[in-house]
Amino acid sequence: MRIGTTSLTDAATSNEQIRFFQHQRARRSYIKIARYVRETFGPIEIDVTDAEALDRPSRDFLDAAVRVGGWSVQLRFDSGGNESVPHFSAEEQSLLNKLSPSARKDHAGQIVTMAFDYVNSGDAWTALNLGHLLQEVEQSPRVWNLLALAHAMVNETVQAEFYYDRWSTSKEPLDAIRALYGKAMLYARHHPDGLRSLTRSEELLNEAYALIQQLGSQERTEDRVVFDEVFNRNGYALILFRRGHVDEAITLLREGIKRLTQTGEKVAIHRSVLIYNLAQCYKQTGNLTAAIATYAELLDVDPRMPEYHLEAAKCHASAGDLDAALAACRQAVELDDSLASAWGLIGVYEGEIGSHGVAADAHARAASLDPASYVHPTNLVYSLILADRVDEATQHVDGWIHSTLPKEEAERRASLSAEIAIRHDRCAEALELIEAGLALFPDSDVLAANREALLGMHV
Fold first, then answer.
1. What angle do CA 233, 235, 236 make, to 5 degrees?
2. End-to-end Cα distance, the chain
3. Which of 86, 333, 339, 391 is 20 to 30 A (C-alpha) from 448?
4. pTM confidence score
5. Positions in the chain short of pLDDT 70
6. Where are the beta strands (DSSP E) in 56-160?
7. How far is residue 6 CA from its own chain's centroid?
8. Are 379 and 347 in contact (CB under 8 A)?
9. pLDDT, tens digit, 9 for 90 and up, residues 324-350
């Protein structure tokens, strides 16, 4: 963190972390590892026996290695006959020894610490396994905290709420305050739509805030308590934002930033989160000048977080400064060239200034990094057509109109395929492609208008 080699989020330890590696961020790490191995050792071929036993992170890693890293992986579901004995590092073997039934209770503290390290690296699944083993020998706030957080990370929010409730029964006030905050965020952000409730989130935040007010005056000046109080009001600012009371949210965030600035430097990551939220509020109000200035402040605090550069780029683009937007995007890819969304934005902005060939190359990079995305391949074909690389565009459209597409993407793909057919003087084929899109979405006004236009050409 101090020598500026990585972002505050990436550099934070599990004790300081407030932004945990969700699947998307973990996948970027998988891509980097897979590429490094391929570039260092050449073509990689792996044969996996007993593939049903693969844990979720290993499956995700191998998926990224195949799709993006160019590995060849064969999965087999038999146990095989020549599999080698698993190799464990000294650290892994030490953990396995501590997990034995006879040793687990004596080493509970070390197991908890390692479980939070797994959480911090994006492997909530292993953390859950460790936490459930710990429950057999220890029922404590630290175990409930671990299990609540890990379940939330893998979108098992009902289970997370169960453990937040258990954690909140702690006699230590800060445990209850933090558990109530975590539960409030489930209702504000993480629960599925049918369970979300801003009203319930507000009630939980205010319940926690009342507990903070009951602490002694000396205790309330401690950094750890200031952090909890400020982030409680940050959560309430989110509710205000969602309800359209953005100016009130801005006031809360400014006060929180001021208070965090007066605490120890190790909470710089916490301050950066509030500055980011403040910038988002200014953007929401249409005050792009203030938003851009706030992003500049944010990047002064945490210059190596690529996502911040991308958010600043969006503000520059909204303000009409595409050169600044592109510069910000390119700073993001310099920090992390595995970020598909950065390449995608470069493609959009290059296209807006008429550099369609450059845009196509950027969209191709985005599509290669995120093969599951529908948007990047569509944007790639669009840019190739505008760049008069129609033959190249043709190579990407075979079978790309299918029933799993969202409506907007189906409309775009059918229209682009029809455009390619027309450019090859195959107007009847163009009409068939539009009809294929309408078969998926009969209520599409876009495709209906395109069909009428083709019929008007006497196809």
1. 60
2. 64
3. 391
4. 0.84
5. 1-23, 80-84, 264-268, 458-459
6. 72-75
7. 18
8. yes
9. 999 999 999 999 999 999 999 999 999
